[in-house]
């Protein structure tokens, strides 16, 4: 079962959300306080959304955090998948469930696109299975 948490439910899942997102985004310990304050504010104000996958015993299996972005010039809305964390393998059936739910949510919010960014090749593979196509590549140089 996949459920979108209401902002009022975030408190119950907060420690788990923090654990998952610290691993997904690789947030350095020195930056975690600010990172988590921004994330919590965004989730509580429904600027970001949290979807959870539960098994039949209502145990948490996966978390997905999304955020709606509006292009300031074109006004086009895009749903960004900010993080996906799973406590086990995501089956094709589970992926299909997440994909359908995220698509329906994006449509309900009048989004034109859904996007994600990841360093993890397994997440790339899951994205491709869900119908995503590579749009661009990001390069960085440490100075």
Task: Walk me through the structure.
The chain is an alpha+beta fold and 143 residues long. The protein has a single domain, classed as Gcn5-related N-acetyltransferase (GNAT) (Aminopeptidase, 3-Layer(aba) Sandwich). Helices cover 38% and strands 24% of the residues. Strands 1-2-3-4-5 form a five-stranded mixed beta sheet, sandwiched between helices. The protein starts with a strand and ends in a 14-residue tail after the last helix. The model has no long low-confidence stretch (mean pLDDT 89).
Present the secondary structure layout.
Layout: E1 2-4, H1 10-25, H2 32-44, E2 48-54, E3 60-70, E4 77-86, H3 92-108, E5 113-116, H4 121-129
Parallel strand pairs: 4-5
Antiparallel strand pairs: 1-2, 2-3, 3-4
Helix pairs in contact: 1-2
**What is the CATH fold-level name?**
Aminopeptidase
Our Rg estimate from Cα atoms comes to: 15 Å
**Shape verdict:** globular
Tell me the strand percentage band.
15-25%
Number of strands: 5
Helix content: 25-40%
Contiguous helical run count: 4
The ordered string of helix (H) and strand (E) elements is EHHEEEHEH
CATH architecture: 3-Layer(aba) Sandwich
């Amino acid at each position: 079962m996949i459920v979108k948490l209401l902002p009022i439910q975030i408190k119950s899942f907060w420690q788990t959300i923090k654990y998952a997102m610290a691993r997904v985004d690789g947030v350095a310990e020195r930056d975690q306080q600010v990172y988590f304050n921004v994330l919590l504010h965004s989730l509580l104000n429904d600027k970001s959304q949290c979807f959870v996958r539960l098994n039949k015993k209502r145990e948490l299996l996966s978390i997905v955090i999304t955020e709606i972005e509006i292009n300031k010039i074109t006004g086009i809305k895009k749903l960004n998948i900010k993080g996906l964390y799973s406590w086990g393998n995501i089956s094709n059936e589970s992926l299909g469930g997440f994909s359908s739910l995220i698509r329906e949510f994006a449509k309900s919010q009048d989004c034109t696109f859904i996007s994600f960014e990841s360093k993890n090749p397994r997440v790339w593979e899951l994205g491709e299975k869900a119908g995503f196509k590579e749009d661009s590549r990001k390069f960085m140089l440490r100075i």
